Amino acid sequence: MMRKRNSIFHFYFLATVFALFQKSAETDYILDRVVNLDEDDATDFRRIRCPLCDWQPCSSSRWYCGDCDYPEYFYGACGTLWNTFSTRGMCPGCAHQWHWTSCLRCEGWSPHENWYASDAD
Ligand SMILES: [Zn+2]
Ligand SMILES: [Zn+2]
Q: What does pTM read for this prediction?
C-alpha cells in the first residue's frame, strides 16, 4: 500500500518538472520572435498614439516591466525594459501579456488595444 502511494507521488513530481520545461521552451520561442520583430522594424508607429493625449511613441520608446497596482494588478514583474508595441504588449522577459499601457507623456493608462488607430481615425 505504501509503495503504491509513493509511486503516484513520484508521477506528479515528474509531471510538474515536465510542465516547467514546457514553459521555458515556450518562452525561448517568444524571445526569438521578439528579436526578429526588432530587426524587421515591422511596427508602424504612425498608427499608434495615446488615446488620452495623442502622443505617438517611436521605436526608441521604452516601457518597464514593474509591479503595478491599478489598473493591471500584476505583481510578478521582471524588470525588463523594452518597446511594448514591438510585442503587442507582451513582456519579452517574463512573457506577461500587459493589457494596459501607460503613456510616457501624460502618464495615463489605456487598454493596449486602444493605442492602435483604426482606419476611421
Ligand atoms: Zn516582465
Ligand atoms: Zn498620453
A: 0.65
